[in-house]
Here is the input.
Amino acid sequence: MTSTGWWFQAKHALDTRGPFPRRRRGTLAEAVTGRRVLVTGASSGIGRAAAIDLGAAGATVLLVARRETELDEATRTIVTGGGKAFAYPCDLNDAAATEATIARILDDHGGVDILVNNAGRSIRRPLDQSYDRAHDFERTMRLNYLAAVRMMLGVLPGMRERRYGRVINVLSAANLFGGPGYSAYVASKAALDEVSTSFQGETLSENVTFTSIYMPLVRTAMVAPDNRYLKAASLSPEEAGRVVCDAIVHHPRRMGPTFGRLTRLVDAISTERADAARHRRFASGI
Ligand SMILES: NC(=O)c1ccc[n+]([C@@H]2O[C@H](COP(=O)([O-])OP(=O)(O)OC[C@H]3O[C@@H](n4cnc5c(N)ncnc54)[C@H](OP(=O)(O)O)[C@@H]3O)[C@@H](O)[C@H]2O)c1
Here is the structure.
């Protein structure tokens, strides 16, 4: 973790403590041993780190992403450590390929017990540079929302029938703070959040749970090109992978930085104040 000054230290402490303290529900091994866990975006960053921890804890890990070499390397790392893992290379932007991959996974393994919707792309582009870029909104929706929905539609029938299922959606802390400058990205993640809230309302009595993780900044390839983050407080991919694993163990409905959750409370009480804070943040270039 890198930091600058007391403000970042204090904010980091609030941002990265993960969920509020909660009743422990056992260990990761107890939660995943013998379970089939599908992780999208498992070729790098948060997804890769989570997949490796899950494999070490006894899950059968099903890894999905486009880059075959990286996917095979992550799979090998799990298998070499004594775990079970299978790679399913797939471009989740391609609806037909995504559905074929889900069908193959269900055929090979008989079902999925835990789904981690982690694959994603981020776009930082302010409004004044977006007027001719409706496709930014389409491509973030295609991957961050529609692909994740396709995954859920594929695995939920089996989860509901077996009366066990955990769906973990990796969203962004910007979904709590608001994301001026990241509108296409934040909107696509918000859509995933909303659809999961509706699904949860339908499946609550079936032991099928949905967790929204409002992930703070993580030092992965996704943020590497943005030098504004060089000195910002952040999690390592391994720490973020453990947040995903915690979500599986505790399966809270929402999980995220305390600071961001307080921001949401302020927004609920006075949206004008929250708008003003968002505008100040955007104007200051953060
Ligand atoms: N880093 C952060 O600060 C941060 C903060 C909040 C939330 N998040 C979220 O965390 C998730 C993981 O991101 P990361 O930070 O770990 O970045 P990353 O290392 O770039 O990982 C992104 C993953 O998504 C996969 N992916 C991208 N496009 C895909 C496609 N069309 N089909 C299949 N897989 C695809 C990538 O694999 P391939 O390239 O091999 O396909 C890669 O495994 C994302 O949903 C991101 O929005 C990140």
Notes: The first strand starts at residue 36 and ends at 40. Strands lie at 36-40, 60-65, 84-89, 114-117, 165-172, 208-215, 254-255. The chain is about 50% helix and 15% strand.
